[in-house]
Automatic annotation (TrEMBL):
Keywords recorded for this protein, A-Z: Transferase
UniProt entry tagged with the keyword Transferase: yes
Domain of life: Bacteria
Compositional bias per record (Polar residues), positions renumbered to this chain: 220-236
Gene3D superfamilies reported in the protein's UniProt record: Cyclodipeptide synthase
Protein name: Cyclodipeptide synthase
Organism listed in the record: Crossiella cryophila
């Protein structure tokens, strides 16, 4: 491991095998969709972890009018509901609930903290990157909260949600302590403009790929034997 928490890894390609990082936010989908996504991931990868992107949503709630304490309370309570739905979906597939990784655990990991510091420094020091982040946030806010005014003040609050999520998009594999990973997300961050405006240190790391989950399979997936999936240690 390097001083900034990176682990050496080869470049990879999407396909059967490897590690899937299923990122689920509070503004995604209901349990039946989660079941479809988890079943697809379990059928196409040898290891799956479900990361709950819940606490960053507090900034989005603040942006649309919640007081700080109420926004945090809502993010936590909705996160608990999302965790319960994710665990139920995994249980239907015969998979352990320990595959669910809460956001608090993600944010406590050294690699995440290194990347988050880099993201914040870039946002504070680069006018070009900051402008790209604000534009991406306006799009994200309109998508997540239909009817939101997306005023400049709202966007400047909600941008902290985007900044918190960005490290997971850049190097989810390194944060979770695996050599390579494919991030699978129903509503991923739009990174094209962000990365074009970002400093060199903010680029997806080798071994970190991404897939957009457009829609869940129509049929309930078959149960997956626990022996077919590798459970990842949570002690990274």
């Amino acid at each position: 491991m390097t001083p900034d928490g990176q682990i050496p890894r080869p470049r990879t390609s999407v396909g059967r095998g490897g590690h899937a990082l299923l990122a689920l936010g509070l503004f995604d989908h209901a349990e039946e969709d989660l079941l479809g996504y988890a079943g697809w991931a379990a059928g196409n990868f040898t290891a799956v972890q479900v990361v709950l992107v819940d606490l960053p949503a507090a900034h989005t709630y603040r942006a649309v009018g919640y007081k700080t304490h109420r926004a945090l309370h809502k993010a936590r309570s909705e996160g608990k509901r999302l965790q319960a739905r994710a665990r139920r979906a995994l249980a239907v597939l015969g998979l352990p609930g320990s595959l669910v990784v809460p956001w608090a655990e993600v944010a406590a990991r050294y690699r995440y903290q290194v990347l988050f510091d880099q993201v914040r420094h870039a946002y504070d020091s680069s006018l070009v990157f900051r402008a790209a982040c604000l534009r991406a946030t306006a799009t994200m806010l309109a998508d997540r909260v239909p009817g939101a005014l997306c005023s400049r003040g709202q966007v400047q609050i909600a941008v902290h949600s985007l900044l918190a999520e960005l490290p997971l998009a850049l190097d989810g594999a390194g944060i979770l302590g695996v050599p390579e990973s494919t991030r699978c997300q129903p509503r991923p961050l739009e990174l094209t403009e962000l990365l074009a405006a970002a400093p060199p240190e903010l680029c997806p790391r080798p071994g970190q790929l991404a897939l957009t989950l457009r829609s869940a399979p129509a049929q309930r997936p078959n149960t997956v034997s626990g022996s077919q999936l590798t459970e990842i240690s949570q002690s990274q």
